[in-house]
Amino acid sequence: QVQLVESGGGLVQTGGSLRLSCAASGIIFNDMGWYRQAPGKQRELVAYITRGGYTNYEDSVKGRFTISRDNAKNTVYLQMNSLKPEDTAVYYCYTDLSIGRQWGQGTQVTVSS
Question: What is the pLDDT of residue 32?
Answer without folding.
Answer: 95
